[in-house]
Amino acid sequence: xxxxxxxxxxxxxxxxxxxxxxxxxxxxxxxxxxxxxxxxxxxxxxxxxxxxxxxxxxxxxxxxxxxxxxxxxxxxxxxxxxxxxxxxxxxxxxxxxxxxxxxxxxxxxxxxxxxxxxxxxxxxxxxxxxxxxxxxxxxxxxxxxxxxxxxxxxxxxxxxxxxxxxxxxxxxxxxxxxxxxxxxxxxxxxxxxxxxxxxxxxxxxxxxxxxxxxxxxxxxxxxxxxxxxxxxxxxxxxxxxxxxxxxxxxxxxxxxxxxxxxxxxxxxxxxxxxxxxxxxxxxxxxxxxxxxxxxxxxxxxxxxxxxxxxxxxxxxxxxxxxxxxxxxxxxxxxxxxxxxxxxxxxxxxxxxxxxxx
Length: 357
Description:
This protein is mainly alpha-helical. 51% of the residues lie in helices and 4% in strands. The chain is built from 15 helices and three strands. Strand 1 (190-192) and strand 2 (198-204) form a beta hairpin. The longest helix is centred in the N-terminal third of the chain and has 24 residues, at 87-110.
């Protein structure tokens, strides 16, 4: 009886397993479970996991849908809670987290590698399975900025404080890579591979069950070297383990980088330059404009490290596509420079003419 695990122990063990597997979403899952389950439902937290019922799960999801928006930040940086939020999406994600946690618990009891005296949950069914998904939660909430709106963003980035400007420009000129991947970049991830010149190594930890972290390489073109120079020049001069650092002591967290563009979205929308946007909208904008520039879907997937499907792509294709990525990053940089009014260099134009010829 004493070895029978509680609901709280089950959720904690599930998140710890995600962390052991290196899942990039582990921190988000832990926060969502703490905010929506462990803190408001203390009586359920100490109940045996096998005693949790579908009505209990419904109560948790109902609370998630109806609770006030959680405030973020500390002290003077406190962000006022807003009524505009993706509650349906959040509740549906919470449902998937709990369903995965109970599936983990069911497998845990039967795992022959589990220590004989470890916690057992005694589950015979998954109580989340029969709870309906949240209707309307999967509706797309992204749209793309127009060319004029993107131009306003590119020009506004130039007016940011020096370090924020450098990081924001890097995020744009690197074609909208996932912020979490950029925040993990260390100095050792920038190297000359002997064939393609300077390369940035990103690690894509986003993936489904059984998907190991995937190496995602980006060629640092001549224009990218200019854009990244304020960041790359800090190597050996600061304590931060990598270039994406605001204060030079540690690498920035993803929330800080996302906040740069959220603030820009608020400021530019307030003066009528753009609609209110976030980095999520910027990623959709970049991919949309890349498509308009003639970069096909497959090449965009290589450039932005979208998930691969099919046996051939997932298990046998180990080509890094660096030449193709270089071409597309050059094309994207020229497009942003045109919006910003940066004069095009003669050698760049000549090279483009040569490729078209």
